[in-house]
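When time allows, look over one protein, given below as sequence and tokens. The question is which stretches look regular and which look disordered:
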Amino acid sequence: MSTERVKMKNVLWFLLGIIGGFVAAHFMNKDPRGHELLSSIDARVTEFTDRFSDAYNAEQNRREQ
């Protein structure tokens, strides 16, 4: 098998995985328990990105002074 074909096959599997994840999340979100779980995950991700952003901005401010 050529390298080009292997790369395209890997890209296809990657895209199918992403699409499958979105479909699964959509169906999970319809169920109240699934909606609660996804909301909890979203809150944790938001908290992490907020803390990361705050730390990055604090470091940038420290370097500017």
Summary: Residues 32-64 form the longest helix (33 residues). DSSP finds two helices and no strands in the chain.
